[in-house]
Amino acid sequence: MLRSNPESYLLNRLHPFAIDEAQTEPLLFPALKEAVRKNSKSGQFIITGSVRFSSRKQIRESLTGRIISWEMIPMDLAELHSFGLSDRLIRIANSKSLEHELVPRHPLTQKEYTQYLKFGGLPGLFSIRNEVARNQKMELQIETLLERDLRMIVDTKISYDSLRRLITELANQQLEPFEIYPLARKTQISVPTLMGLMRALEAIYLIRWIPSIGSSRKKSYIFEDQGEATYLQTNPVHPLHDFIRFLYANLRTQWHYQNKVKTRVSQMRSRSGQWIPWVIQGLGKSEIALIPTLESAPNRATMGAASAFLRRFPQGKVLIVHHDFSVDRMIHPQIRFISWNKLV
Predict the structure, then answer these.
(1) With CB atoms counted within 10 Å of each terminal CB, which end of the chain scores lower, N or C?
(2) pTM > 0.90
């Protein structure tokens, strides 16, 4: 019906009228523009999809001025347990003192930490505990991403097996400085084609780029859902990298869903090897550096990274984050050694 007469398809619908996987029908978008032109009432249509609409060439109508776009990200532990959206990082960014009182909102265990890295936060996947059923559904999810969604964005004849090998390699290398030439050699995909595929993988919400503001400007990427990343990984993962990706997945809701703040999330990586995985700017009055550690006390490298951050951002605040629930002490007026459960 939509393809034969898009305007009639939208006519006299009860509002709000929801249309899922809207990216599959490019004719819908000019029809939406016309419908909203005739009736400017807000909230008439909810259109959802697994592809960024603006990334598909066939969708030429952007609906600028007529649409509010919102990216829904995988659920974090707080949402999975119905604890509500946390504002801990916003409060820290706006507080005069880093000694801001933080009481854990809920008891979480090491088991829940491990389970989250394995199951992730995708609806329809995170709650499946039967291993066989979950693997089958994950394979179907990956096949849909690569055979349907990806090919809507980029016209490629690369086989599914080659694309599957590519995202497996990407899962093994997430958070590392991105090097396209070694990746091209390893996957046997040409550099121009690979560049187009990387843009498409971001447009289908598989990965997200992380720019660097340090002396080394090599960007990194991270998987949007860590359950997918864990499933795809074939190489052993360092426990610190596990902790870093867990923190990202469980803290970013605090800035992602705040429409009143304009945050910029980056990393700070130096040529000498110093690395701060998360630098958050715009969340409040102060920049915040998150430095995960597995050490019982911050070592020289961690303190060196914290000092480098404060030289660049004199009013900034550093949170050295540990997964020991008993950790919480001030090291410096601008540096706090804290457990992750006080931040989520």
Answers:
(1) N
(2) yes
